[in-house]
Design a protein that fits this description.
The chain is α/β, with parallel strands linked by helices. It is built from 13 helices and 10 strands. GO terms for molecular function: kinase activity.
């Protein structure tokens, strides 16, 4: 079996593994989103943090699944960068939605959703994505995502909706105020990642009715705006992938049951399943 370099990248972080027979070498870098990093910045990350993984043995295959790779131009740019650094490798670059589908379904059919920093969904026929509802970004959409939930947390704080207890906990945890929040959201780069960082406040304060309402509303918005748009959602499992899906799996299970949807797998990190999938194909 040739050495394989396999990666799953969101907009916030990218998980990597170099597989040589049964030996696995892992690392994590920032997400290689073409919307936040230039080609030269991507190359710099790869050169400093990924190339050292293969210091002893070069990969013969590269399987990269990442956000922004639904655009052919981005695929060509990243493929060229990989070929520059790993000239002997066979390079495969696909979007993160396909990576989520493969990790959750393998060769089976299913409706698959990503709930991470952003959100998106698709119908996968066991070989390829047939229908998709890609996210429209943290400003216009991304219901049920980290950036969506983080925005709700900040709104509740700035609008003074939180009760005294939650307001105190917010201030104690984040040590921030209105002007700094506005500055980071509207004037600094990578606002989606900044917003998503506030999702932890929801996870840490489960049980409070305001917190539960935010989570339920966000997951409901996603189900109604995405899963209800697939006719396949009514006759096959719906799977969820990502850190937010994993963190709020109980809410997802309850709402899918209430909606009459069959819940399939909830996958926290796709990488291990992708490793198993590609290593089974020699």
């Amino acid at each position: 079996m040739s050495v394989k370099l396999i990666a799953d990248s969101g907009s916030t972080k990218c998980d990597w593994c170099l597989v040589d027979n049964k030996k696995k070498n892992y690392t994590t870098t920032i997400g290689l989103s073409p919307y936040f990093l230039s080609t030269s910045e991507v190359e710099d990350v790869l050169q400093k943090e990924v190339v050292p993984l293969s210091a002893k043995k070069q990969p013969g295959e590269i399987w990269f699944y990442g956000t922004g790779m639904g655009d052919l131009k981005n695929v060509k740019n990243l493929t060229a960068t990989f070929k520059k650094l790993f000239p002997n490798a066979e390079v495969h670059v696909s979007n993160d939605m396909l990576g989520a589908a493969v990790s959750a379904c393998g060769d089976s059919k299913g409706v698959v959703s990503i709930l991470g920093t952003g959100s998106s969904s698709c119908y996968y026929n066991g070989k390829k994505i047939v229908k998709s509802r890609f996210g429209i970004g943290y400003i216009l959409g991304d219901e049920g995502s980290g950036s969506y939930f983080g925005k709700k947390v900040i709104q509740h704080f700035l609008y003074d909706i939180f009760d005294a207890d939650l307001k105190h906990k917010f201030e104690e945890k984040f040590h921030t105020e209105r002007n700094e929040l506005i500055e980071n959201v509207y004037r600094k780069p990578m606002a989606n990642r900044y917003l998503a960082s506030f999702t932890m406040f929801l996870a840490e304060n489960r049980g409070h009715y305001m917190i539960e309402n935010i989570i339920e509303d966000g997951i409901n918005d996603f189900i109604h705006n995405h899963l209800y748009k697939f006719s396949e959602s009514w006759n096959m499992p719906v799977h969820f992938v990502g850190s937010v899906a994993n963190g709020f799996r109980d809410v997802i299970a309850n709402l899918c049951d209430a909606a009459g949807l069959e819940l399939g797998k909830i996958v926290h990190k796709p990488l291990d399943n992708l490793i198993d999938y590609h290593c089974a194909r020699r």
